[in-house]
Task: structure prediction
Amino acid sequence: MNTCNTSSAVPLARRFALCAALLACTVAPLAAWAQGAFPNKPVKIIVPFGPSTGPDILARTLGQKLSEKWGQPVVVENRSGASSAIGTKFVATSPPDGYTLLLTANTLVLNKSLRPSAPYDPSKDLEPVTPLAVGRLTLVAHPSLGVKSVKELVASAKAKPGSIDYASPANGTPHHLAMELFKQGAGISLTHIPYTDTPSAVKDLVGGTVKVMFLPIHVAMPHVQAGRLVLLASGGKARADATPDVPSLAEASGVKEFDGDIWYGLYAPENTPAPLVAKLNADVNALLGDPEIKSVFARQGLTTMGGTPQVLANLTRDDLVKWTRVVRTAKIQAD
Result:
């Protein structure tokens, strides 16, 4: 029932008092969040991957700092399975009170692109809080292929379509989809050889069994520096900070909109109040400038990002459109 009605049965003064009381009940919790009353109990960060993975390391690093800032425990809980869908759905269906958060990678949208029936919609069932970091994928080749640039790789692939094998850790991984995006943009045909994990794929790449692969920059560089691999391009649209003299793939390939980078973000359940999202965003962004956090991220091959919830919302929406298009064009089937 709407208490703030205009019925003449309720005296005007009383109606104003009732409306003021209702307004106070609505605004008080939001004001409390804005003033720092949140949190007053432990906060959970759900990581939809296993322990010691990149997102897990980021969550534990941020969680410790947030715990110190808030004076409340921040517990990291791993809920892996179904290509991150289990943990993601758990957060999407949790109370929107800020006490259950999701730290994930853009696997969030890759999974939905590959599996339209996944039990969540990344653009509707979650409230973006802040982008956290970006990891650059580099395009590398085995020296025996005889190419030293993206232009040479494209020319070789066009001369003998399908003759060059490329590796990925598994079907549907960022490494796989980044190569499919590159293939479609460059108009070339390469043969996909999926592995069961990254170490196995890298071992065969370094051994020359497969010739080309996208790798995170911190995984690729030791092999490049040792002469075991050739770095053709690094980064997506922009050059990587670690290799400023190496062109980005967008520059090197002429595919201006190419962006295969892996990003990480923090989300809350849908309908989390805007003032609470704003507080979470401000607190996390303040920590992303911490030298210790930057150092931990850098050791994972990541550059800290930060930004508004809208920045993460745009990333989520745009990547979902892009990767859905790539998956459909390449007719990729989820394992």
Remarks:
- The CA atoms of residues 109 and 320 lie 5 Å apart.
